[in-house]
Write a structure and sequence with these properties.
There is one protein chain. By secondary structure, the chain is an all-alpha fold. It has one domain (about 5-75). Helix content is about 50%, strand content about 0%. The N and C termini lie far apart (about 30 Å). The relative contact order is 0.21. The mean pLDDT is about 90.
Length: about 80
C-alpha cells in the first residue's frame, strides 16, 4: 500500500485477503499475525512487528479505534512496553 494509509484501507485489504483466499476469520488472524501486518500502514514486518511498534509509536492502532473495524480488531497484537 503506497502513500498514506489508514485503518479503513487496511480493513479493506484484510477483507480482500479473506475473500480471495476463502479464509475463515481465524485463518485470517493467524495469517496477519504470522506476516506481522501493521494495521496502521498495511506493511508486513514479520516477527519484527512488536519491535517496529515499540520503536515507532505512531504505527500503533488504539484498541478503541480498531473496534469500528471488524477484521482489524480481530488482528490486534499486544505491544511491548
Amino acid at each position: 500500500m503506497a502513500g498514506t494509509t489508514c485503518i479503513a484501507d487496511v480493513e479493506r485489504m484484510l477483507q480482500e485477503l479473506k475473500v480471495s483466499n476463502d479464509w475463515s476469520n481465524t485463518k485470517l488472524v493467524k495469517e496477519v499475525r504470522e506476516r506481522g501486518i501493521c494495521l496502521k500502514n498495511g506493511k508486513e514486518y514479520g516477527a519484527d512487528l512488536p519491535v517496529a511498534l515499540k520503536k515507532n509509536r505512531c504505527l500503533v492502532v488504539r484498541k478503541d479505534k480498531a473496534k469500528a473495524f471488524p477484521l482489524a480488531k480481530k488482528c490486534l497484537v499486544k505491544t511491548p512496553v
